[in-house]
Amino acid sequence: MKIFDYYFFDFDGTLVDSYDSLEYVFEKAYSLVGITVPKGFTLRLMRVPLSVGYKELHAPENEEAYKIFGEAISRLLDDSHALKLTKIYNDTIEVLNTLKQSGKKIGIVTSNNQKHVKEVLHYLDIDENIFELIVGNKEVKKHKPNPDPIYKGMEILGIFDKSKICYVGDGLDDIRCAVNAGVTPILIDRRNEYTNECENLIKGLKELL
What does DSSP say about strands 165-169 and 184-188: parallel, antiparallel, or unpaired? Predict the structure, then answer.
C-alpha cells in the first residue's frame, strides 16, 4: 500500500461501528412519519445523505413531515442509548496513533454532522485533536459522491497536490467522491460486501500501514 501524507477518513463504518446505533436512530425517526425501515436497509441509509434515503423510502414529501424527521434525527443521534450502541473498531486507535506519530495528517470527511462526530469521539474517549479537520454535512452544500467534502478538507489544510491524499471509506459513494476529487480512493470492506469495485480494497485499517 502506498504511503500518503494526508489520510482523510469516512466516519461511520470506517472508524467506528455505528450500525446498531444508526439502526436505532433511523427506526425511531422514520416511525414518526409513518415509515418502517426494511430489514437490512440501514447500511444504505448510513451511506447516503438523509434526503436521499428519505426519498428512497417514499416518506411523506411535505415540508412539515421532513422537518419532524430531521429534528428527530438530530435529537436521537446524541441520545444516550444511541451513543451506548456505538463501538470503536479494534484497529482504529492503533492506526490513527501510528499515522499521527509518523507525521501524517489525518482528518474526517463524513456525511454525518460534525457536532455528533465530536460527541461520539468524546464518548469513545478519543481525543478529537488527533484530527486536523472534521468536515461534516453542514460544512458543504453538496455531499458525497460530489467532491466538495474532500475539496473542503483540502482547502482547510491548504493542500494542492492531490497525489498526496487518500480517502478511506466503506461505501461506493466514498469511492466516487474520492475519484471525483482526484484523490486516491481506498475502500475498506469490513463486511465482505465487495469484490473488484475498487483497486485499493482493504479488509482492515492496518493494511494502510
Answer: parallel
Residue-level pLDDT, tens digit, the chain, 209 residues:
899 999 999 999 999 999 999 999 999 999 999 999 999 899 999 988 899 999 999 999 999 999 999 999 999 998 999 999 999 999 999 999 999 999 999 999 999 999 999 999 999 999 999 999 999 999 999 999 999 999 999 999 999 999 999 999 999 999 999 999 999 999 999 999 998 889 999 999 999 99
- DSSP structure string for 119-182: HHHHHTT--GGGSSEEE-TTS-SS-TTSSHHHHHHHHHHT---GGGEEEEESSHHHHHHHHHHT
The CA radius of gyration of the chain, in Å to the nearest whole number, is 17
Q: C-alpha distances in angstroms, 147 versus 57, 81, 173, 175?
A: 25, 33, 10, 10
Neighbours of 42 (CB within 10 A): 21
Preceding amide of 145 cis, omega within 30:
yes
Q: Is the pTM of this model over 0.85?
A: yes
